[in-house]
Amino acid sequence: MIRTAIIGMGNMGSRYAGYISSGLVPGMTLSAVTRARQERFEQLGITEGCGIPVFDTADELLDSFAAGKISLDAVVIATPHISHEQIAVKAWRSGLDVLCEKPTGVYSRQARIMEEEAGRAGRVFAMMFQMRTSACYRKLHDIVASGKYGKIKRVHWLVTGWYRPDGYYEASKWHASWKTDGGGVLLNQCPHNLDILQWICGMPSRVQGFCHEGHYHDIEVEDDVTAYMEWEGGATGTFITSTGDAPAVDRLEIFLEEALIVCENGGLKIAELGPELGQKEADYRKNSTDFFRTIKGTWHDADIGQDSGDQWLKMLCGFASHLEKNDRSDPDRAPFIVSGSEGRKSLILSNAIYLSSWEKKMIDIPEPGSSDELEFEKRFEDALGKKSLTNTYREGSRQQ
């Protein structure tokens, strides 16, 4: 059995602890947790004498493991973003594998360091990007990667399903502050969307961001974002999100050379150009004398297969399956494990959107591992540091 500790017993961490303690994750057992509210422990059946040790902090838990007082194989980190790097690095240096909640950190340097540390330790670094288990997104990924409809020309994603009332920000002491949270909707909710975006479409090469702070809520961080993106090869796109628009819209459109694909409401619709035009769209555009024709495309619903089951549970089961196999070099041995390197990509993208908005200009997105990445890291951290020092939010106004 994979002896697992949950570090961070908030909403997500307690959910993961519940899955494991209920026996829903084959091959995994709950071996330690950090402290949480008493009602969470009561819900999980964790009581004094139950055999599951409870520690006040991540350091105490990991120190206890290092001292041989508890037995562990892996940890799941579900603490505030800023602490992910420190906890993960200590876990890897102790010989443990890590599944980390999104985002990898607040700034991309943290993600780079985590990736490097896991590599040096020879341990597993996985990310909780559960949206990758969606049958819709997996099918969309496969269609785009196949090249069946040619290259991407344009991408539009409007996602306002992250609606939050004011009480959401008031209920948590560390939310909605540049100093303790590191950002708003881009960093708290949209790492999932940005991960899917770069997974399907590849990393943009440059971005122009427009982040509006406190647009819908009395908070200092952004709750409304529009980003314009460009890819090498000529594709362009927009990404729009907020926590203050209702009703919810989640519509991803990908224009390819020979089709338009729309992902919405858990389904995929495809408008193929070939059946209507009888030739490649580029050839039609070059040769047609029908100057005002409206091209509608031939629409059909894509068969995306079955999409059932809890996405977070799938990710935990995939992590457990990954650790159980002996050949850790085989990337296909577990269906739903996402490498920590993917967390680095989505964090670079969100950092670039922030930096672009603050500097009011388009930002080139650096290649991971390049000297440009190091310069980008410094620019972003300097800018974020200034935001943290000049925050105007009323300290102490939120409840613990």
Spatial strand arrangement across the major sheet:
14-13-12-11-7-10-9-8-16
Radius of gyration: 22 Å
The share of residues in extended strands comes to: 15-25%
Report the uncertain regions. Answer: 392-400
Oligomer: single chain
CATH top level assignment of the largest domain:
Alpha Beta
What descriptive keywords fit this protein?
single chain, 400 residues, alpha/beta, Rossmann fold, Dihydrodipicolinate Reductase, domain 2, 2 domains, nine-stranded mixed sheet, seven-stranded mixed sheet, 14 helices, 16 strands, 37% helix, 21% strand, disordered C terminus
State the gist of this model.
This protein is an alpha/beta fold.
Structural summary, described in words:
This protein is of the alpha/beta class and 400 residues long. It folds into 2 domains: 2-131 and 310-338, Rossmann fold (3-Layer(aba) Sandwich), CATH 3.40.50.720; 134-306 and 344-389, Dihydrodipicolinate Reductase, domain 2, CATH 3.30.360.10. Helix content is 37%, strand content 21%. It has 14 helices and 16 strands. The protein has helices at 11-21, 38-44, 58-66, 84-93, 108-121, 135-146, 166-170, 185-188, 191-201, 274-277, 281-287, 311-324, 340-359, 371-389; strands spanning 2-7, 28-34, 54-55, 74-77, 97-100, 125-127, 152-159, 206-213, 222-230, 236-242, 250-256, 259-264, 267-272, 298-301, 338-339, 363-364. The strands form 2 sheets. The chain has a 9-stranded mixed β-sheet with strand order 14-13-12-11-7-10-9-8-16. A 7-stranded mixed β-sheet has the order 3-2-1-4-5-6-15, sandwiched between helices. A hairpin with a 5-residue loop joins strand 9 (222-230) and strand 10. Helix 5 packs antiparallel against helix 13 (340-359), helix 6 runs parallel beside helix 9 (191-201) and helix 9 (191-201) crosses helix 13. It is globular, with a radius of gyration of 22 Å. 42% of the residues are buried.
